[in-house]
Write a structure and sequence with these properties.
73% helix; single chain; 135 residues; mainly alpha
């Protein structure tokens, strides 16, 4: 689609020079992007992710976009949109250390005790798999 050719160079520039995705600074920079985002940008980014999830686009760029979109929808308190973003794109980013945190935020927003238990269990599983702590 046309939107890809227009915004792809912008994305590459936007996401180059970010701190490592394992740092708090990374999350803070992406949060600032989400705070500045508007609905039109949101739709463009979702379209871009849709069109590029299974392409050769750098996965770290796609993950950064996913984090911004998740943060944007969560900050708007639009839980159904937040859930849709995670369900639609999240599976590709399971190996990123920040992904369990995003899942935990989603399940916390859903608010049921079952959802919170799922989030905690998933987070502990990912920590154990990474070798960074006990399960």
């Amino acid at each position: 689609m046309e939107v890809n050719s227009v915004i792809q160079p912008s994305f590459i520039h936007t996401f180059s020079g970010l701190p490592p995705h394992t740092t708090r600074e990374y999350e803070l920079k992406l949060t600032k992007m989400a705070e500045a985002m508007d609905e039109e940008e949101y739709r463009e980014w979702v379209l871009y992710l849709d069109n590029n999830m299974n392409t050769e686009v750098d996965t770290s760029i796609l993950f950064s976009m996913f984090v911004v979109l998740s943060t944007y929808t969560r900050r708007l308190k639009n839980i159904s949109q937040f859930k849709e973003i995670v369900e639609r794109f999240g599976e590709k980013f399971i190996e990123y250390p920040l992904y369990p945190h995003i899942l935990s935020l989603l399940y916390k927003e859903i608010g049921t005790s079952e959802a919170i238990e799922q989030a905690v269990a998933f987070a502990f599983t990912k920590v154990a798999e990474s070798g960074r702590g006990p399960a």
